[in-house]
Design goal:
By secondary structure, the protein is mainly α. The chain has helices at residues 10-21, 24-36, 40-68, 72-78, 85-117, 127-130, 134-153, 156-183, 188-196, 205-218, 225-230, 239-268, 286-294, 296-333, 337-351, 353-357, 363-367, 381-408, 411-419, 429-459. Bound molecules: tryptophan.
């Protein structure tokens, strides 16, 4: 076991797990989902999912990892249920798929640092063209992947933990600075209203699926990333408290990201909030326009700062995504870490190429996936992969992990592991809630939503 490594401290684990959770999902995905989901109503559903459903699943993942000290596939085997390790395998596939497209977006963000630093705000109107320059943006993506691989190759305490401890505080500082600035702009209040005053008439099936997908994705759940990180956690650690802190950090930063972005849109739109529903382009189109409106040195500084922040957030997440297949290869195939890291990173970069090409460069990858989406809207390859991995595999994985823990591995064993390092856990209300949530609530809700999502996304059948 000694060669597997581990986190050196409690804070190190929390920083790394929170770093995994906080990423493009919070700063890029959350605001655009809020915008498309009609604002505050989405936020309410999202928060409910995070605390009621995701929290128990997260604690369960970490507990399975710590108990077995294994990657997601090996963990099921180590508990004596080899038949279940397909859940882990599915998680590894999801990790590879997610990182493959995540890195494409991280590459764009990385390139934007240089565009902003050279005051090229006009990039906002050329975003469509920017993404077709595949050698340029692909080059940035390659650099980003190499940075991720470098961190992971340094191991758990020397790489992942160190990077998170450095990047997370920097990220929080930058984001708070930006919030303070945004809130001082004219019409900031209209942004805040859009963001925080719910209009429940805007809730429909699609808002609910997206809120669940977003919550799972943002908390890095459902594919064993936290089984993997949990496998490096000390037995004395209190998993329940750690889970609470990680969830709060993730939700908190998503929330703050909204506080940063919606006032900016309020300012830009003169209070109409037009552009809030900008979708995935929100960060790459709307924001640079706003930085351009600010103009001068200040615009350059704010714009550069924003994309540096985004890249920091993305890096601690890409690191966790790469760690999952790497841990699998290291544990199960006895490959040395360094080797496993560079091979995996290379494979995943290649898997990401269709996603990279799907933004205008290749007609086929940009629009050919039409039939997979509701209403026949054109769908690019990246969105298609996100529908498969984020919206389908993650809830299914979460459903299976919860069901497995409560009914196959048995809830007594889960309780036992969670009570290690948490002296007051046994007999507490939380324990009872966890038993209920992991045993019944999570499998039923996640299973149902998985089925509904698949019917809706891939077959165009809408039941609610
Ligand atoms: N949670 C990260 C984000 O919000 C992305 C991420 C990292 C992830 N590791 C994961 C998502 C594991 C799902 C599973 O950007």
């Amino acid at each position: 076991m000694a060669t597997r490594g581990g986190f050196s401290s409690r804070l190190g684990f929390i920083a790394a797990a929170a770093g995994s959770a906080v990423g493009l999902g919070n700063i890029w995905g959350f605001p655009f989902e809020v915008g498309q989901g009609g604002g505050a109503a989405f936020v309410v559903i999202y928060l409910a999912f995070c605390f009621i459903l995701c929290f128990p699943v997260m604690a369960t993942e970490i507990a399975i990892g710590r108990k077995t000290e294994k990657n997601p596939v090996g963990a099921f085997t180590a508990l004596g249920y080899k038949k279940w390790n397909w859940v882990g395998k599915m998680g590894i596939v999801a990790g590879v798929l997610i990182l493959s497209f995540y890195n494409v977006i991280a590459g764009w963000a990385f390139g934007y640092i240089f565009e902003m630093a050279s005051s090229n705000f006009g990039i906002a109107d050329q975003f469509g063209e920017y993404t077709t320059k595949i050698f340029k943006v692909g080059g940035y993506g390659l650099l980003f992947m190499a940075t991720t691989a470098f961190v992971v190759s340094k191991g758990i305490s020397g790489g992942i933990e160190k990077a998170a401890k450095l990047l997370m505080p920097a990220l929080i500082l930058m984001i708070l600075t930006m919030v303070v600035y945004s809130l001082t702009l004219p019409n900031a209040i209209d942004g805040i209203k859009f963001y925080l005053v719910p209009d429940f008439s805007k809730i429909n099936g699609s808002v609910i699926y997206n809120a669940l997908g977003q919550a799972f994705f943002s908390l890095s759940l459902g594919m064993g990333a936290l089984i993997t990180y949990g496998s490096y956690v000390n037995k004395k650690e209190n998993i329940v408290t750690a889970t609470a802190l990680i969830t709060l950090a993730d939700v908190g930063i998503a929330f703050i990201a909204g506080l940063m972005i919606f006032p900016l849109i309020g300012f830009m739109s003169g209070g109409t909030m037009e552009g809030a529903a900008g979708g995935p382009g929100l960060i790459f189109v709307t924001l640079p326009q706003i930085f351009g409106t600010i103009g001068g040195t200040l615009g350059t500084i704010v714009g550069t700062l924003f994309f540096v922040l985004l890249c920091f957030a993305a890096l601690t997440s890409t690191v966790s995504l790469l760690e999952v297949p790497v841990a699998y290869v290291v544990d199960e195939m006895q490959v040395r870490r360094k080797r496993a890291v560079w091979i995996m990173a290379g494979i995943i970069f290649v898997v990401g190429i269709p996603s990279l090409l799907g933004f205008g460069y290749s007609e086929f990858f940009s629009t050919a996936f039409t039939t997979f989406k509701e209403g026949g809207t054109d769908t690019d390859f990246l969105s298609f992969i996100a529908s498969v991995a984020n919206d389908s595999i993650l809830p299914l994985g979460g459903c299976m992990i919860a069901f497995f823990a409560a009914h196959i591995w048995k809830k007594e064993n889960l309780d036992e592991e969670l009570a290690q390092g948490a002296p007051n856990y046994k007999g507490s209300f939380l324990q009872k809630y966890m038993n209920f949530a992991v045993g019944y609530l999570a499998p039923i809700v996640l299973g149902t939503l998985f089925v509904l999502t698949v019917l809706f996304k891939f077959f165009g059948i809408s039941i609610i």
